[in-house]
């Protein structure tokens, strides 16, 4: 139903944001298929709820779904450990990432650099990369708008530093 | 003016500052080589971060068509509504059950007929008059022993719940005494992959001579946009080998829905398309209602046509009637 052209806004948002949401989710669940599934779930919920600030809403729901996904993965892992009495952590995000990037050490280095950030720095960086504005990021993370720039500055610096450190270690290991 | 703080430079480059703040920063930058160097460093840092993050992107895929996702959202919503209704029915049953349980207790302690009536009345009067979210009902309450004959929500409600979802027609939402279907029909209980359509819909076999064209050839042959649903992969384009008296020959574009099922767009001279559709329709006894409106759109579940002068644009897909109608309107608008 297209009431007063409102849904056209949602359609436009879908066309312009879907890929960014998939990317945002992918960097949290590290599984392309799962990221697509979750992104579709996000937009289906968007079409059902039709919130006032849809763009920020989309990323907030995406972050929640990704968090639920991570919790479910931890539960599954615990369950598996109990079942098999296997002290090993079982299939993990890192293992999944290994599969994903086995042909690309560069990708692995970036992945680990992102993991090295604090959750808040990572969230702010990913939201910014997803296209949210400072006020939208502030609303979602609970930061003051003025603190978003500070957090982004720190996150960018740490990401690059962690990546370079990782890269240097890999190079050293390869040559030794 | 003191040097510009680093976070402000980030915010400035991220275009997160007000115009007046930008002017102030630019004025300082104009004569401060130190801040210019820091700005350039931050520009490089931003670019580097963006480039690093860009490597962490899944392979690009074609997103599902907006209409498909929206149709799925509507289906989920309508199902949820049904669950709410079912939840209310359960609440009524539970309330009545509680009333009767109380009745049993009261009977043991000298009950009167008036009290019994009051109890059961109060239980029933808890029934909401309008549709509202369901009240959670603890299982043990819902399954209270000595449950009486459950309160039936209504004849219509009962009828809806009793029909298997795969057999639900759009007419389900239309009261029998309604003179005409509403402008937009909410789909009920129809899934994208359910077998709600006749087998002929799934195996589309046009009669007559047809040529299969490549996408480029189809575009050239058409000379105007090939009718299709944007955002869905095109599987096959067929064009009628017989040249129409006027205008382009009939074209059938088959595209794949995310569920794997096929959606076909047919465009051509009215007589040819009508004949084609009639040949596909072997299920004349189907219960699906036929709808039509002033805009020249008519059809039913799984099939929708739009009359455009002496030509017809048609869509066949296992989708609810309102989704098909939205698609055909949109396609018509985009072609113009």
Question: Can you describe this structure in just a few lines?
Answer:
Helix content of chain A is 82%, strand content 0%. Chain A contains eight helices and no strands. With 336 residues, chain B is α+β, with helices and mostly antiparallel strands.
| Widest β-sheet, arrangement of strands of chain B | 1-2-3-4-8-7-6-5
Q: Tell me, rounded to a whole number, the average pLDDT of chain A.
A: 81
Secondary-structure content class of chain A: mainly alpha
Tell me the β content of chain B: 5-15%
Strand content of chain A: under 5%
> Of all protein chain pairs, which has the greatest interface, and how many residues does each chain bring to it?
A-B, 44 and 35 residues
Overall pLDDT metric of chain B:
67
Return Rg of chain A in Å. 19 Å
The CA-CA distance between the termini of chain B, in Å, is 58 Å
Relative helix content of chain B: 40-55%
Give the helix proportion of chain A (percent range).
over 70%
Describe what this molecule looks like in 3D.
The complex is a heterodimer of chains A (176) and B (336). Chain A has eight helices and no strands. With 176 residues, chain A is mainly alpha-helical. Residues 1-6 and 85-93 of chain A have low confidence and may be disordered. With 336 residues, chain B is α+β, with helices and mostly antiparallel strands. Chain B has eleven helices and eight strands. The longest helix of chain B is centred in the N-terminal third of the chain and has 43 residues, at 66-108. Chain B is flat and about 80 Å long. The two termini of chain B are 58 Å apart. The model of chain B is unreliable at 109-203 and 283-287 (pLDDT under 50). Classes of the chains: A mainly alpha (176), B alpha+beta (336). The A-B interface holds A 1-2, 7, 11, 14-15, 18-19, 22-23, 26-27, 32, 35-36, 40, 43-45, 47-48, 106-107, 110-111, 113-114, 125-126, 128-129, 133-134, 146, 148-150, 152-153, 156-157, 159-160, 163 and B 6-8, 10-11, 14, 16, 42, 45-46, 48-50, 52-53, 55-61, 63-64, 66, 69-70, 72-74, 76-77, 184, 322, 326.
């Amino acid at each position: 139903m297209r009431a007063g052209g409102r849904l056209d806004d949602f359609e436009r948002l879908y066309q312009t944001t879907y890929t960014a949401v998939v990317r945002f989710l992918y960097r949290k669940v590290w599984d392309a298929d799962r990221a697509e599934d979750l992104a579709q779930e996000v937009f289906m919920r968007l079409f059902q709820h039709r919130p006032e600030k849809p763009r920020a809403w989309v990323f907030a729901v995406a972050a929640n779904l990704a968090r639920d996904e991570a919790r479910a993965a931890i539960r599954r892992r615990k369950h598996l450990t109990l079942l098999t009495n296997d002290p090993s952590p079982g299939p993990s995000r890192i293992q999944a990432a290994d599969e994903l990037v086995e042909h690309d050490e560069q990708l692995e280095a970036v992945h680990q650099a992102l993991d090295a950030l604090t959750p808040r720095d990572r969230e702010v960086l990913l939201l910014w990369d997803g296209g949210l504005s400072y006020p939208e990021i502030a609303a979602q993370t609970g930061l003051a708008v003025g603190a978003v720039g500070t957090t982004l500055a720190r996150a960018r610096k740490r990401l690059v530093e962690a990546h370079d450190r990782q890269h240097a270690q890999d190079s050293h290991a390869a040559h030794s | 003016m003191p040097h510009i703080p680093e976070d402000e430079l980030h915010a400035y480059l991220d275009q997160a500052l007000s115009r007046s703040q930008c002017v102030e920063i630019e004025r300082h930058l104009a004569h401060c080589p130190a801040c210019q160097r820091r700005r350039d460093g931050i520009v490089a840092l931003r670019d580097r971060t963006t480039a690093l993050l860009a490597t962490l992107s899944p392979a690009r895929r074609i997103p599902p068509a907006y209409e498909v996702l929206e149709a799925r959202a509507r289906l989920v919503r309508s199902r949820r509504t049904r669950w709410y209704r079912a939840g209310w029915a359960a609440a009524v049953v539970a309330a009545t059950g509680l009333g009767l349980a109380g009745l049993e207790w009261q009977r043991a302690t000298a009950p009167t007929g008036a009290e019994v009536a009051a109890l059961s009345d109060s239980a029933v009067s808890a029934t909401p008059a309008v549709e509202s979210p369901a009240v959670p009902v603890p299982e043990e309450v819902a399954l209270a022993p000595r449950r009486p004959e459950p309160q039936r929500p209504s004849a219509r409600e009962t009828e809806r719940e009793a029909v298997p979802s795969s057999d639900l027609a759009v007419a389900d939402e239309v009261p029998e005494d309604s003179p005409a279907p509403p402008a937009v029909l909410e789909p009920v209980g129809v899934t994208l992959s359910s077998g709600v359509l006749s087998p002929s819909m799934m195996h589309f076999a046009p009669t007559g001579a047809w040529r299969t064209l490549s996408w480029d050839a189809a575009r050239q042959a058409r000379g105007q946009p090939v009718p299709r649903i944007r955002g869905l992969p095109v599987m096959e384009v067929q064009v009628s080998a017989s040249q129409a008296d006027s205008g382009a020959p009939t074209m059938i574009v088959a595209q794949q829905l995310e569920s794997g099922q096929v959606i076909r767009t047919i465009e051509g001279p009215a007589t040819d398309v009508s004949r084609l559709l009639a040949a596909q329709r072997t299920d004349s006894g189907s219960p699906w209602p036929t709808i039509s409106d002033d805009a020249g759109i008519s059809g039913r579940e799984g099939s929708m046509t739009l009359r455009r002068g002496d030509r017809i644009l048609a869509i066949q897909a296992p989708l609810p009637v309102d989704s098909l109608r939205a698609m055909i309107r949109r396609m018509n608008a985009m072609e113009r």
